[in-house]
Design goal:
The protein is 42% helix and 18% strand. The chain has helices at residues 6-26, 39-70, 88-115, 135-148, 163-169, 286-299, 306-309, 317-327, 332-343, and strands spanning 172-173, 187-194, 197-202, 207-209, 212-215, 219-226, 231-235, 240-244, 250-255, 260-266, 278-284. Helix 1 runs antiparallel to helix 2, helix 2 packs antiparallel against helix 3 (88-115) and helix 4 (135-148) crosses helix 5. It binds copper (II) ion. Its EC number is 7.1.1.9.
Length: 344
C-alpha cells in the first residue's frame, strides 16, 4: 500500500468510480417503460443525473469509510485532534464543482424542454415576461373563465379581448417542436379537469368521453383547462406532466410510440378524492382508433352528452319528472287514477 504512489491510486479510483457510475446510469431501471417520442429525452437527462449522483455518492461515502478506518483512535492515544479551521482552496473547490454541475444540468434541461416544444410561440416560457398583469386583469381573466366553465369546452378567453388579458389567455406548456409550429397536429383533444375526473372532448368529431384514445405514431395536441382548482395532467410512461389551471390555458404535445393502455394521473393535490382522479389512455392502431371514434360519434349523435346539455331550468316540471316517473313504474293510468282521487 505504502509503495504505490498516491497519484496512481487516485487515478485508479477515478476510473473505477467513473465506470461504476456510467453503468448505474444506464442500468438503473428506475423509470417505467418509454411510450412516447419525448420519453428518451427526459430519460437521458435523468440518467445523466443518476451518473453524477452515483459518482458523488461513491466518492463521499468512500472517503468517509476510508478516513474512519485510517484515522481511527489507536489504543492508548489520548491526544486531541489537530485544530484545523477553514481551508480557502478547499472551500473554493467544493463550491465550484457543484456550481458547474448545477449550471450544466440547468442548461441541459432547458435544451430538453425546448426540444419537447416548451418554447414554441404558442406555449411556454416565452410569455412569462408578459404575464405580470395587475391583480385587476388577473381577476377579470378568472371571471371570464368561470363564465366559460359551464360549457366545458371553454373556448379560450376570447379573441376580442383587450391586449393585457389576451396575453394572459395565451397558453403554457409543451407545444410543437421548434420549427414545426406551422404543422397542424394530427389529433386534437380538449381535456377538462374537475374535482375529481378527467373529461376528454374531440372537438372535430363532437365526441366526449371519460377515457382518452389516441392513434400510435401521430402528433397529438392537448388543450388543458380546469373548471375548479389546480390539477396536473401526468402521463408517467410518456414523461410529460403539465399543470391544469383554472383561467389559464395550458397545452401538451406528444407522439405515442407503443400501443397499449397507460394511466392518466392527477399529480396536483386537488381535494379529498385527488388520489382517485385517474383515467386511462388507450394508444390504438390507427384503424382501431378510427373505429372507436366513429362508434362514439354515432352513439353521441355527433353532438354533446344530453345529460350535460340539458338545463333543468328550461324544462317544465312534467318533462323534468317524466324519466323519474317511468323509472318508478308510474304510468298514465296511475296518474289518471291519482288526479281522479284528488278531485274527489
Ligand atoms: Cu386533480
Amino acid at each position: 500500500m505504502k509503495t504505490v504512489p498516491a497519484s496512481i491510486l487516485t487515478l485508479v479510483t477515478g476510473v473505477v468510480v467513473t465506470l461504476i457510475s456510467l453503468w448505474v446510469g444506464q442500468n438503473n431501471h428506475l423509470l417505467p417503460i418509454q411510450a412516447s417520442e419525448q420519453a428518451p429525452l427526459v430519460d437521458d437527462l435523468f440518467n445523466v443525473m443518476v451518473i453524477i449522483g452515483t459518482a458523488i455518492f461513491l466518492i463521499v461515502e468512500g472517503a468517509l469509510l476510508l478516513f474512519m478506518i485510517q484515522f481511527r483512535q489507536r489504543p492508548g492515544d489520548e491526544s486531541d485532534g489537530s485544530p484545523i479551521e477553514g481551508n480557502i482552496p478547499l472551500e473554493i473547490v467544493w463550491t465550484a464543482i457543484p456550481s458547474v454541475i448545477v449550471i450544466g444540468l440547468g442548461i441541459y434541461s432547458v435544451e430538453v424542454y425546448a426540444e419537447m416544444g416548451g418554447f414554441t410561440p404558442e406555449g411556454g416560457a416565452m410569455m412569462m415576461s408578459h404575464n405580470h398583469g395587475g391583480s385587476s386583469t388577473k381577476g377579470s381573466a378568472l371571471a371570464a373563465s368561470l363564465e366559460d366553465a359551464p360549457n366545458l369546452t371553454a373556448p379560450g378567453l376570447g379573441d376580442d379581448m383587450p391586449m393585457a388579458e389576451a396575453q394572459i389567455a395565451r397558453s403554457y406548456g409543451l407545444g410543437a417542436k421548434p420549427g414545426m409550429e406551422a404543422l397542424e397536429p394530427d389529433v386534437t383533444v380538449d381535456v377538462t379537469a374537475m374535482q375529481f375526473a378527467w373529461l376528454f372532448n374531440y372537438p372535430n368529431e363532437g365526441v366526449y368521453t371519460a377515457e382518452m384514445h389516441v392513434p400510435v405514431g401521430v402528433t397529438v395536441h392537448l388543450n388543458l383547462d380546469a373548471v375548479d382548482v389546480l390539477h396536473a395532467f401526468w402521463l408517467p410512461q410518456f414523461r410529460i406532466k403539465q399543470d391544469v389551471i383554472p383561467g389559464q390555458k395550458t397545452e401538451l404535445q406528444f407522439v405515442a410510440t407503443k400501443t397499449g393502455t397507460y394511466p392518466i394521473v392527477c399529480a396536483e393535490l386537488c381535494g379529498s378524492y385527488h388520489g382517485g382522479m385517474r383515467a386511462e389512455l388507450f394508444v390504438d392502431e390507427p384503424e382501431d382508433y378510427q373505429a372507436w371514434l366513429t362508434e362514439n360519434a354515432i352513439a353521441q349523435g355527433g353532438g354533446v352528452i344530453p345529460i350535460l346539455a340539458a338545463n333543468p331550468a328550461d324544462l317544465t316540471p312534467g318533462e323534468f319528472l317524466a324519466p323519474y316517473g317511468q323509472a318508478m313504474g308510474i304510468d298514465d293510468s296511475l296518474v289518471q287514477h291519482l288526479s281522479h282521487h284528488h278531485a274527489l
